[in-house]
Amino acid sequence: MENIIEVKNLVKKFGDFTAVDDISFDVKKGEIFAFLGPNGAGKSTTIKILTTLLRPTSGTITLAGHNPTKDPEEVRRSFGIVFQDPSLDDELTAKENMDFHGILYNVPSKLRKERTEELMKFVELWDRRNSLVKEFSGGMKRRLEIARGLLHHPKVIFLDEPTLGLDPQTRNHMWSYLQELNKKEGVTVFFTTHYMEEAARIAQRIAIIDHGKIIAAGSAEELIKQTGTASLEDAFLKLTGNVIRDEESSATDRLRTRRQAWGNKKH
Amino acid sequence: MKTIYIMWLRELKRYFRSKSRMIGSLGQPLLFLLALGYGLGSVFQAAGQGNYFQFLVPGIVGMSIIFTAIFSGIQLIWDRQFGFLKETLVAPVSRLNIMIGRTLGGATVATIQGIVVFILAMLFGFRPDNWFLVPVAIVFMLLVALLFTALGTGIASLLEDMQGFQLIMNFLVMPLFFLSGALFPLSGLPTILADLTIIDPLSYGIDSFRALLVNTTHFGLGVDFTVLVIVTAVFLVVGSYLFSKIEV
After folding, report:
1. How far, CA to CA in Å, does B209 sit from each of B114, B143, B177?
2. In order of start, what are the domains of chain A with their CATH numbers?
3. A105 vs B91: CB contact, 8 Å cut-off?
4. Which one of A88, A92, A251 has the shortest CB-CB distance to B10?
5. Would the CB atoms of A89 and B84 count as touching at under 8 Å?
6. Fewer CB atoms < 10 Å away: N or C end of chain B?
7. Could you tell me the residue range of the domain that residue B92 belongs to?
8. The predicted structure's pLDDT at residue A267
9. How far is Cα B110 from Cα B115, in angstroms, rounded to an integer?
10. B90/A contact by beta carbon, under 8 A
11. Whole-model pTM?
């Protein structure tokens, strides 16, 4: 089968720190692919490079036949993404956030209305469509982001820890929608998660990254067999060790903390 | 086109929803207008310069425009911090259009703010010299607003977080305002001060407001217009370039 994502010898350095260290992998068209790794392993950095938000230090990438560094707009046309951290506009309503997305992605207005209603009902936010996002709880925001990410049907959808903080109902709901989309429209799904049983259940192929390097790849069964363990979780721990990782706090985290300390004065 | 429109609309929605921001940003110009306008009025008159309040209003309109415009541009940092910027940066639309939409939105908001200050000043007795020139003055307000929103966006593209905000206020916005002749006439200044006012683009903005609203000008409206258009174009080009290079 044809590859929709091809990564060769990708390196990303931030100063002295090598976040992604010479990785290569492929994702096949129409595949559900899980990208696993401990915190700070380089997952999000890789996704940011694939989605044109960061430029690689070296290496070559193709996404749907285009190079994200040379041809970012063409690449942006072919994927959708649900980010790990929030990317909604708090001062707009839920529906306005959906409309905004639909217009940016040039979804025809009739289709946009239909899908907005369908998706917002699906994540059970339709009744709250006219509320400002800043009034939403963390879980509601997450659900809205997922609905928004699915509004246009891209060739590849990236989901960076999409199920973090979601209840099992919503999580299951979301995956069945994505699997359906994958089957019906052949959308390639590229996701990261910390829930190993989720990866084992959903993903057709898995790559495990640690310290910026891909240390294993294959189906869940293959990884389990390869490590001689009983479950993907055990396989993962065997491969990546038991040491707990620190992630450097980003400027965003620092600002969020400060904003909380001010007692949410702005809102 | 749609991208520009939706980005513009977003800026306006955010502005009209944030009542505290609207009202808060009127406090400072009002204070300047009333305290200085009435406080220095008699001295100004005694120096043979005429009615200070009439002189001051175009300056304070300019002040509220530059503050709102730069602040709108700087809001980009908040969008970066709270993630929304990413949503726009991965969208399959040109970053130039995103930047233009944002800038037009911010500039529209700043112009509205300028008009509100103008109307408030009329409540306190300000009268434009020629009513027919008021719409032209509004066009110039929009031009000045565009210039400084583009500047704010350009600067914000280079900044990671709000740490630099105070720096920008104290070393950029305040000097631009105080050296623009918003508060004093530009003629008969000491050489260094005169030179500084000449390189301050806001000087030309406020001079154009004075030319159109109270019929006094230092540089002449033609010079004002040329300088404003050139500087705005340069800031837009540089701002777009910096914006297109943002990495999150």
Report:
1. 11, 11, 15
2. 3-261 (3.40.50.300)
3. yes
4. A92
5. yes
6. N
7. 2-244
8. 38
9. 9
10. yes
11. 0.86
